[in-house]
Design goal:
about 300 residues, alpha+beta, five-stranded mixed beta sheet, two-stranded antiparallel sheet, about 55% helix
């Protein structure tokens, strides 16, 4: 029977970022993951555990529709599911009224800005994963859907834990370097020198605020060792190297504990209360618990 490394190298699905907004607060999920098929109920889904090529997605898959937007960039095909636009707009409406008052504009304009920032940020994140996979000689594609997206690729037989870790980290660091840090720099510059006296520049602060929040805050949270976030993928590879027989079970145990702690922080924390984010991490903690139980029974 083929060993785990042989089976695991067959196909990978990587990266996914999801975002939850609570009055202009954004919490995101992103992950790069090895797997057999395009990520399940993608973005807010727990992609299947990383052991064998028989592993299953926990929340199913999002099928293509005739309303998908499709394009090719840098030789990588991208598909955008219509639910991505709808959910992004719904998230943006959460704080659009207050932001519109601050800008002396209308909420629809603010929502359009939010959707554009979310689209750009998730696309950059997924391209971070996909371009590194392509650099290794594999052929990725990207899907944006509901709360985020994923990048899928088929690795070669030379796949290693080190390559998987690089691909997992490429997503959040692409966001940090290309959008997050420059946006913070832009906010500092606006604070020091002010804005040019043209109406179009009135929207620059909120654009920079959204981009910095999505790419820095979400990027940091995405690096938490909670499966299937990108940090969880890195944790999985390390645990499997240190303890091959129990690596996956240890990964789920760590994810379950960290997710529970983060959920409690967002629900009861003294500094910030984000019930939606708390529910999301509670859900991830439960999924890690389920995966841990199933791995102990030999399902994965």
């Amino acid at each position: 029977m083929p060993n785990k490394e042989f089976r695991r190298s067959k196909l990978e699905v990587l990266g996914c970022s999801s975002h939850f907004n609570f009055r202009h607060s954004l919490l995101g999920i992103g992950h790069s993951i090895p797997s057999l098929a395009p990520l399940s109920a993608e973005r807010l889904q727990l992609y299947q555990p990383p052991i064998s090529n028989e592993r299953r997605y926990m929340l199913g898959q999002v099928a293509p529709t005739q309303y998908d937007m499709r394009f090719v960039l840098f030789g990588i095909s991208v598909r955008v599911h219509p639910l991505f636009w709808l959910i992004a707009a719904a998230i943006g409406f959460g704080g659009a009224t207050d932001a519109a008052l601050d800008l002396n504009s209308n909420p629809v304009t603010v929502v359009v800005i939010w959707v554009a920032c979310m689209f750009l940020s998730i696309l950059v994140h997924e391209f971070g994963h996909a371009l590194v996979a392509k650099w290794f000689g594999w052929h990725p594609h990207i899907v944006l859907h509901s709360f985020g997206g994923y990048a899928a690729y088929q690795p070669g037989w030379d796949n290693t834990a080190g390559k998987s870790i690089l691909i997992a980290l490429a997503g959040p660091f692409a966001g940090f370097i290309l959008l997050g840090i420059p946006s913070i720099g832009g906010l500092v510059a606006v604070g020091v020198w002010g804005l040019p006296s043209y109406r179009v520049f009135d929207f620059l602060p909120i654009v920079l605020k959204y981009l910095s929040w999505i790419n820095i805050v979400w990027g940091v949270i995405n690096l938490l060792p909670v499966f299937p976030l990108d940090g969880g993928r890195v944790c999985s590879e390390i645990c499997r190297k240190l303890s091959p027989p129990n690596g996956d079970r240890i990964t789920y145990q760590i994810g379950m504990v960290i997710a529970g702690g983060v959920a409690a922080f967002f629900l009861f924390g003294p500094l910030v209360r984000m019930p939606i984010a708390a529910m999301m991490f509670a859900f991830l903690g439960f999924q890690n618990y389920q995966a841990m139980q199933m791995s102990g029974r030999g399902y994965y």
